Amino acid sequence: MAAPLTLLLIVAVTIRAVLFRSSLAELIAERVEVVSPITAWKRVVEGLALLDLGVSPYAGDVFHETPLIIYLFHFVVDYAEITFMLADVITAVALYMAVKDYNKQVFRKQKFALEADRYPHDCLELIRSPREMYYIPLKVAMFYLLNPFTILSCVAKSTCGLNNAVVAVFILTTIKGNMLLSAIFLCLATYQSIYPLTLCAPAMLYLMQRQYIPVNFRRASFWWFVVQYLFMYLGSLFVLICLSFFLLGSWDYLPSVYGFILSVPDLTPNIGLFWYFFAEMFEHFRLFFLCVFQINVFFYTIPLSIKLKEHPVFLIFMQLAVISIFKSYPTVGDIALYMAFLPVWSHLHRFLRNIFLVSCVLLACSALFPVLWHLWIYAGSANSNFYYAITLLFNVAQILLVSDYFYAFLRREHHLTYGLYLKRKDGSEATLVLK
Amino acid sequence: MAAHRCSYSAVLFILFNLSVFIVVDSHQTTLTNDHHGSVVDNPQTASETVEQTAAQPAVDDRRWEATEVEEEAIPDDASTDTQGTSTPESVVLSSLPKPKDDFQEELVVRPLDSGDIYASFQFRTLWETDFMRGNKVSHYRLFPKSLGQVISKFSVRELHISFTQGYWRTMQWGQPFLPAPPGAELWVWFQDTVTDVDATWKELTNVLSGIFCASLNFIDSTNTVQPSASFKPLGIGNVTDHQFLRYATLPREIVCTENLTPWKKLLPCGSKAGLAVLLKSEKLFHSSFLSQAVHIRPVCQDQQCKTTSWELRQTLNVVFDLHTSGQSKREWSLFKMFSRTLTEACPLASSSKIHIDITDNPEGEQFELSPATPLLSQAVVLGDRRTFSVYDLTQQTTFGAVRSLNLLIRWKSSEGHMLRPLLHAERYVAGYGLQTGEIHTLMYNNHPFRSFPVLLLDSVPWYLRLYIHTLTVTSKGKDNKPSYIHYQPSKDRLRPHLLEMLVQLPPNSVTEITVQFERALLKWTEYTPDPNHGFYVGSSVISSLVPSTVAMDTNSTREQPLFSSFFPCKEESSFFVRVYTEPLLVNLPTPDFSMPYNVICLTCTVVAVGYGSLYNLLTRSFQIEEPSPGLAKRLANIIRKMRGVPLL
């Protein structure tokens, strides 16, 4: 199993190295779909240049990275390409190992359920075989490393790749059951872009499941666990924030990084929903809609956690997808991270309703982004509405994709409880509906 | 902050060293110049002594006006002073006993080599008073009360405001006496007693906006900067802490009659008498370039600077294009240009003169000047010794028998040799598309063998996000690292970028400065009413001490023509020049302004689709669908029920 992974890594690194050397790299680094004001490499370099000039990088409105990123690239700015390739490799390997471990657990659980005869008898075709699960970890790594979105993001040196690596390591440590490391990496991810905060819930659910702590509000063990985890999480967050303060000696980075993410002052077009909406917003409704849109990202955490409390890894997938759709400055790198999980849910394919349509729309939109951008910005023959329309379509497609997987997952669970071939009262074949 | 001050003082030190070096370096040449100059000076001084008798058998029958007095002993340190530091000697006026206030007016006409005519009006009011005292100044004679109140209310130390229509073409016209960028420019030094400079500045701009009928109220924090080195006080005062300095330009400002009228009203004689009768807007605005300005600064009354007085200098520079005025022959007269002739000086003026630059026309072979004047004057201006014919309007004889003065220049030959200006700059935006771009600034040093440092000031609005790491400075194909960079990055919707650099320009070279920027998409309410016209970026300001070919007049105690005495000169070997580049017009990407409702609806729909589908899956559960009977069957059952027969 290690050999194909090594081969995959070599192929992925080669593709990236070739692209870094080609003239495309400069073009890709300017693409608004690939880099956002937060993650653009150009802005990291600018921040370092400002630091060299003796100006605080947060004195202006160009640099929005966290102080740790500055600190990191202060040393490795000359090896940036290697750093970003390494970040991708780490992400892929972490996801690979995490999914491998997760699959083992899934299989074990399935075995217990089968032994306890908990599944209905007509569900045998829903049971997952080790043979089909064998290549899933490799597919996950492949989906991440060879995804054009990831490649573009890496070649553009978008720091999104680093954030993905942190999140992937967080997932790995969580699945491995290491509470402390999980909290630390979650805190790192939060520190980088706030939104991974919502991954707190699945992480706790998963760790509790592993430690056989029931999710019951009346149990002291539950609360003890929550307090422990939150303490580690908040403690490391506190340490990180203080460390950042001591790195630059000022709190300027707080409004410049987190204020920037939350208040969306930069309306540079991207693939998200925020930019055009807030460019066209009436000034007195701005704050209201800003709150609505930002709450929207965090809003689904609690209902999803309740619904999926038995399946925290799927919850992680859902949360990552929701974040990458509704965050304020999304890039294709964010999408690549949750798309890497799609092979994990390959057993859901028989329940997906419109995967063909959605994948066609996603592909078409990805092709149309540069075309319409060119028409608007360079040719002048289109206007902003064209590009905006494509972002809308792209987001609708993502929403449909995610909700489709969610539907399929719930449906499979339902079948595993009630049997695959359901019958009506009169004995005819039944159709399943949501009510 | 401390680092800034350190580097700032380092710059001063460098400037200081440079100037010393230049002085030493040019000692040989200036010596010979001086020698030559003294030879020339001798007949002047001689002529001065016999001017009263008017019976001088001069070289020709022209007289030299008594503008150049014997060299006086200059304090040694005066020559080593730099432009940056102001000393009490900076502007010292003649030590003659004077009334408390004094008004002078002056018109300089210079035929330009491009065939255009440059006319520069200067009106100076001096008033020995103290606006900053506790008791209010209430009695105004020559000084305009509106400005006096502004000075005392806002604790202004220096105020410089200019309104300019058109762009001064340095390469064709040479250096102007008073440079000004297109649009409106305002820079103010406040007294160090002002606590909240920003609030005072805001209030001041609004008041000035009313006084000059201009859109100065559009000056806010997004176009105001505090230059660290480029704008030093021109009057006395040794405060150089730039936190009391505010500088703003409005490159889009259109200058027209409504700005000229209030400007004329500030003059003691209004436009009723004196040179100001020539300022008719229908002619002035039919010109290639028009710049009107007001400069207020404290100056010394005497060399010891025991008493200070306030100087109000109102200047108006205009360039007329002779070719567009329709005549085939090149002929210029006061009447033709201003549609007025002069009949008297302003009765309140202590001096009222017209200077015509005849340096290029010593023998009268280029043009003919009528009526001829016997009075000549020499002045060193902008590093060049110029000769002027002088008409003194306070003398009745100037107006002749017709009691009206209509100066006339009639050209004989059209060839003219252009002395290229030593320092010249231009700027443009490169790149295509609406995403990124690059600002190129070209600075030309036309001096054949001397290099000199220049200070470049760039203030770029926040919506063009500059990337300072892309800054390159190249001269003669080589990297030319600026010895000082002061960069203040922008804050969105709050303050502009400020970039100040000290660059050494090698002799006879072009220095190119490029910096990349990114164009921001603004909120739809932040665009101007004509968004696709583009957004203006104010001129770059290039300030420099340019090596002079002749010895500059550092002794400011002598009576000088107004046009040559504005920028205080600290050393003989160089003179101060400020060059403004073209303003830039940059297009930004625009949203569709007709779409706010649609965009809000459509985006909210997408969010609702997301919310709806997740809500659906979260709250509902899977159930087996029990088919409802068909419509026909249901209808039949209803009828059956009414009939009382068993249902189907």
From TrEMBL, chain A:
<feature type="transmembrane region" description="Helical">
    <location>
        <begin position="285"/>
        <end position="302"/>
    </location>
</feature>
<keyword id="KW-1133">Transmembrane helix</keyword>
<dbReference type="GO" id="GO:0042765">
    <property type="term" value="C:GPI-anchor transamidase complex"/>
</dbReference>
<dbReference type="InterPro" id="IPR009600">
    <property type="entry name" value="PIG-U"/>
</dbReference>
<feature type="transmembrane region" description="Helical">
    <location>
        <begin position="354"/>
        <end position="379"/>
    </location>
</feature>
<feature type="transmembrane region" description="Helical">
    <location>
        <begin position="82"/>
        <end position="99"/>
    </location>
</feature>
<comment type="similarity">
    <text>Belongs to the PIGU family.</text>
</comment>
<dbReference type="GO" id="GO:0016255">
    <property type="term" value="P:attachment of GPI anchor to protein"/>
</dbReference>
<keyword id="KW-0256">Endoplasmic reticulum</keyword>
<feature type="transmembrane region" description="Helical">
    <location>
        <begin position="385"/>
        <end position="407"/>
    </location>
</feature>
<keyword id="KW-0732">Signal</keyword>
<dbReference type="Pfam" id="PF06728">
    <property type="entry name" value="PIG-U"/>
</dbReference>
<feature type="transmembrane region" description="Helical">
    <location>
        <begin position="141"/>
        <end position="171"/>
    </location>
</feature>
<dbReference type="GO" id="GO:0006506">
    <property type="term" value="P:GPI anchor biosynthetic process"/>
</dbReference>
<feature type="transmembrane region" description="Helical">
    <location>
        <begin position="229"/>
        <end position="251"/>
    </location>
</feature>
<feature type="transmembrane region" description="Helical">
    <location>
        <begin position="314"/>
        <end position="342"/>
    </location>
</feature>
<keyword id="KW-0812">Transmembrane</keyword>
<protein>
    <submittedName>
        <fullName>Phosphatidylinositol glycan anchor biosynthesis class U protein</fullName>
    </submittedName>
</protein>
<keyword id="KW-0337">GPI-anchor biosynthesis</keyword>
<keyword id="KW-0472">Membrane</keyword>
<feature type="transmembrane region" description="Helical">
    <location>
        <begin position="257"/>
        <end position="278"/>
    </location>
</feature>
<feature type="signal peptide">
    <location>
        <begin position="1"/>
        <end position="25"/>
    </location>
</feature>
TrEMBL record, chain B:
<feature type="transmembrane region" description="Helical">
    <location>
        <begin position="7"/>
        <end position="24"/>
    </location>
</feature>
<feature type="compositionally biased region" description="Polar residues">
    <location>
        <begin position="80"/>
        <end position="93"/>
    </location>
</feature>
<feature type="compositionally biased region" description="Polar residues">
    <location>
        <begin position="41"/>
        <end position="55"/>
    </location>
</feature>
<keyword id="KW-1133">Transmembrane helix</keyword>
<dbReference type="GO" id="GO:0042765">
    <property type="term" value="C:GPI-anchor transamidase complex"/>
</dbReference>
<dbReference type="GO" id="GO:0016255">
    <property type="term" value="P:attachment of GPI anchor to protein"/>
</dbReference>
<protein>
    <submittedName>
        <fullName>GPI transamidase component PIG-T</fullName>
    </submittedName>
</protein>
<keyword id="KW-0472">Membrane</keyword>
<keyword id="KW-0812">Transmembrane</keyword>
<dbReference type="Pfam" id="PF04113">
    <property type="entry name" value="Gpi16"/>
</dbReference>
<feature type="region of interest" description="Disordered">
    <location>
        <begin position="32"/>
        <end position="97"/>
    </location>
</feature>
<feature type="compositionally biased region" description="Acidic residues">
    <location>
        <begin position="67"/>
        <end position="79"/>
    </location>
</feature>
<dbReference type="InterPro" id="IPR007245">
    <property type="entry name" value="PIG-T"/>
</dbReference>
